[in-house]
Amino acid sequence: MAHQARKRFGQHFLTDESVVDGIVRAVAPAPGDCLVEIGPGLSALTKPLLTRADRLVAVEIDRDLAARLRRTYPPEKLSVVEADALEVDFSAFGEHLRIVGNLPYNISSPLLFHLMACADRVRDQHFMLQREVIDRMVAVPGDADYGRLSVMLQTRYRMTKLFDVPPEAFDPPPRVVSSVVRMVPLPADRLRAKSEAALEQVVARAFAQRRKMLRRGLADWADDIDWDALGIAPTARAETLSVAQFIALADALTDAGRVGPGKPHSVGLSN
């Protein structure tokens, strides 16, 4: 029986073989790789990945699709984890993980942040997402798409947009264009904030009022910041600051005891 796509799971099944081939070539799986696929669905990617790799872990929330995967592939080749990806501890799958997926668009940003927790165990990630989300992920200071998602992910990954995917490559077709992105975790000696919680608070607050000059948007913290030392102009707005400047800003406020764990923070995190 044909599987009916379920809207509550954001299901859009990839059917275009040329797109499948493009993703598999980008991943370039090899024997011995520790592959994890999020949302395998009807196994458009699963099958070609398994022709090149020894085995794969598949995280699938849909119980019918999980059962279909178990019937189709032997357990020594495919280990099916029937669960919500947002609740899965990906670090339990091992080290040097290579994570792949056509991610549900309705949970893409929360899932990207969830995966940051296990980035130390990841070799690379290749995801298909809504194009506008990937444009935000890879945006640079000064771009209209540059925002909270850009800054937070760029503190942890080097990201490359690979190619676009049209709606007709899926069944049912989504209402948006998709893209494929490669995410490679930055090394242990990367520039990092003294407090990740502080950085999250500062970036969220800065972009919550992105049309305001930063010194006004962060007015209640302004006296604790040496703006000139940080190289932040009086008229600067959040979208003009580099990732390094956001880290320096968060560190200055951490040193002043104004942000960090336990400090009140009620700014929305959707930007």
Give a quick set of tags describing it.
single chain, alpha/beta, Helicase, Ruva Protein, domain 3, seven-stranded mixed β-sheet, two-stranded antiparallel sheet, 9 strands, disordered C terminus, KsgA/Erm, EC 2.1.1.182
Tell me, rounded to a whole number, the average pLDDT: 91
Look at the helices and sheets and give the structural class: alpha/beta
- Poorly predicted runs: 3-10, 266-271
- What is the domain tally? 2
Numbering strands along the chain, what is their spatial order in the largest sheet?
4-3-2-5-6-9-7
Which fold name is given in CATH as the topology of the largest domain?
A: Rossmann fold
Over all CA atoms, what is the radius of gyration? 20 Å
Helical stretch count? 9
| Distance between the first and last residues' Cα | 41 Å
Can you tell me the CATH superfamily of the largest domain? Answer: Vaccinia Virus protein VP39
Main sheet: strands, sense, barrel: 7 strands, mixed
Strand content: 15-25%
